[in-house]
């Protein structure tokens, strides 16, 4: 195994239409749906920053201006809060804009996750980079992304995050066929299948929205034909890298057993809101008491 280059760049695809949350997302990006009092996308950006990534690129599309506005300064609002002596809320407002510079590129056409990642090629250049999907909220106490970056540095290939799901649910995910590596806490990915039929999946290990990729993925994506749904699938490009040889080839998996929520799914989104709200110091105990009474 070879040592790769250090990782400083993160790509955050956020161009999706959010149709599962209509009509709430008719005029508001799905990434701006609040999880307690922060939009879902802020948790993702904070995860990248906390993992030491300092160069963030967000892939956006039409009607996504609110994302840029959220991470920008708002002098009028900040001044009003300051004049009112509301330092607590001022700190919260400034927290988003103090996360660091975020760059933005428009995808233009909704051609799939693979195409969204390809839109980052000029910005990323010849460096390994992380991809964080805005729908996946990973608990801030977890070190998944840091672990994946360490595996990439160790192997020099690409790394995906995997979770175990009930076999009946695997058709909603990309699925990995894996092999254990002796002495390591990560696995080798032999092949990937996008949303296999139940009964035809090679395992119950599902791909979730965290990747650490070798830049060779861009060359593969340029040649990848549209796949399932008529879109350019990142899974197809990773399948090519998994089967390839030479620099940048090889795909590895980190099996994640921590807390993760799919904020693009209504039930999982509600679980995220309730779980994180119940852990808040200022009202968590009151919420849990109310929940007990409501459930009973």
UniProtKB/TrEMBL annotation:
EC number: 2.7.7.9
Pfam families named among the record's database cross-references: NTP_transferase (PF00483)
Keywords, comma-separated and alphabetical: Nucleotidyltransferase, Transferase
Matching CDD domains: UGPase_prokaryotic (cd02541)
Gene Ontology MF: a single term: UTP:glucose-1-phosphate uridylyltransferase activity
Catalytic activity: alpha-D-glucose 1-phosphate + UTP + H(+) = UDP-alpha-D-glucose + diphosphate
Nucleotidyl transferase domain ranges (all copies): 9-275
Matching SUPFAM superfamilies: Nucleotide-diphospho-sugar transferases (SSF53448)
UniProt protein name: UTP--glucose-1-phosphate uridylyltransferase
Gene label: galU
């Amino acid at each position: 195994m070879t040592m790769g280059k250090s990782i400083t760049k993160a790509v955050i695809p956020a161009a999706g239409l959010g149709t599962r949350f209509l009509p709430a997302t008719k005029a508001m990006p799905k990434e701006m749906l609040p999880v307690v009092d922060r939009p879902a996308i802020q948790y993702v950006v904070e995860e990248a920053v906390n993992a030491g990534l300092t160069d963030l690129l967000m892939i956006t599309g039409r009607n996504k201006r609110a994302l840029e506005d959220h991470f920008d300064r708002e002098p009028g609002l900040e001044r009003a809060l300051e004049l009112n002596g509301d330092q607590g809320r001022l700190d919260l407002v400034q927290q988003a804009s103090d996360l660091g510079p975020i760059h933005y590129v428009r995808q233009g056409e909704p051609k799939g996750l693979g195409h969204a990642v390809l839109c980052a090629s000029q910005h990323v250049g010849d460096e390994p980079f992380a991809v964080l999907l805005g729908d996946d909220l990973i608990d801030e106490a977890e070190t998944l992304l840091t672990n994946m970056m360490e595996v990439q540095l160790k192997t020099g290939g690409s790394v995906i995050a995997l979770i175990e799901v009930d076999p009946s649910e695997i058709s909603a995910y990309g699925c990995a066929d894996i092999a254990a590596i002796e002495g390591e806490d990560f696995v080798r990915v032999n092949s990937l299948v996008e949303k296999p039929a139940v009964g035809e999946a090679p395992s119950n290990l599902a791909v979730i929205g965290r990747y650490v990729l070798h830049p060779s993925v861009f060359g593969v994506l340029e040649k990848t034909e549209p796949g399932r749904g008529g879109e350019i699938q990142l899974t197809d490009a990773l399948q090519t890298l998994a089967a390839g040889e030479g620099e940048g080839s090889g795909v590895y998996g980190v099996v994640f057993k921590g807390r993760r929520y799919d904020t693009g799914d209504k039930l999982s989104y509600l679980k995220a809101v309730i779980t994180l709200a119940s852990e808040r110091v200022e009202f968590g105990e009151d919420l849990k008491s109310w929940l007990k009474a409501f459930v009973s």
